[in-house]
Amino acid sequence: MHSFVSVRPARPHPFPSTRRRLARLGAALLTLTTALGLAGYAYAAPTVAELEKQIDAAWNKLEPIIEQYNMVHGQLKANKAKAAAVQKRLAPLQLQIQVSQAQIGDVAAVMYMGGDMSRLNALLNAPTPADFTDKLTTLDLLAGDQRAQLRGVITLRDKYAADKQSLDELIATQAQQDAALAAQKKQIETQLAALQKLRLQVYGTSGARGVFKPVACPQDYLSGAGGTAAKKACSLIGKPYIWGAAGPDGYDCSGLTLTAWAAAGVTLRHYTKWQWADNTPVSRANLRPGDLVFFFSDLHHMGLYVGNGWMVHAPTTGDFVRMAKIDSAYLPIAGYRRPS
Q1: Rounded to an integer, what distance in angstroms lies between the CA atom of residue 242 and that of residue 44?
Q2: CATH topology assigned to domain 224-338
Q3: Catalytic residue positions, numbered
Q4: What is the pLDDT of residues 178-197, one digit of tens each?
């Protein structure tokens, strides 16, 4: 007698496409984080929250490089302008030296280069000893005055020449740094494109998380420069993140804040650490619209406060200028500054 055991076929996974999609995303993220030096995680079937965490980690590795480029490029541009200004001052000084030297040669070179023979000739050609004394004194005074002026011009020229040499040496060093960062640009942009692709896979074609402006912006009304900066930042919501950019088509984090404050007539430099160093510290309790909020110990990200715990910032590649709460698990606050 045979016994039969009924075997129930395995039930298919209720969401096979979702499972396969997450597996593919996990493989893509593993490749990306390995390239960025962030390997060490296992991605069997990552959740969206896990993917978000790793995307943020990858971005926080890239953003400091972007801000370093902003710093070096800004310094190089400023120093080239200084060198050009010094060069403009050098040219007329050199011409003035040449003219003065020619005048001394015409008037008093014989007196000072010919020695006693020149003075003897002056004596022989003078009708009286008094004439000789007057002539000699006049030549001495004239030549001495011109030589003194010439020494002053030469001193000034040498100072500018030394300044120019120092600037040229600094420019050469910064140009090398700028070129090195430029050489990384393609690699950086490739990494950013990979992040963008992954974001689109996770979040859809908008590349954004949530609503750009979930509440009124600014949250608090403030007159004056800070209020103007806050309103300008709010007007830029929805613009795409573009690294190294300060508008009008897109912005990075420090490019957004400098553009907002430019609307209030205040100039900020395009680098997070410069904006930290150049402006006045302010406490959390005294925050008001327009203040700058900085994140991470190396200050590689920042936003502009718009009141009631909200800021406007340019988050990451593939995202857009948007509002966010300043208190966030993935954005540790480093401090606050107020432009003036």
Answers
A1: 32
A2: endopeptidase fold (from Nostoc punctiforme) (3.90.1720)
A3: 253, 301, 313
A4: 778 777 766 766 776 676 66
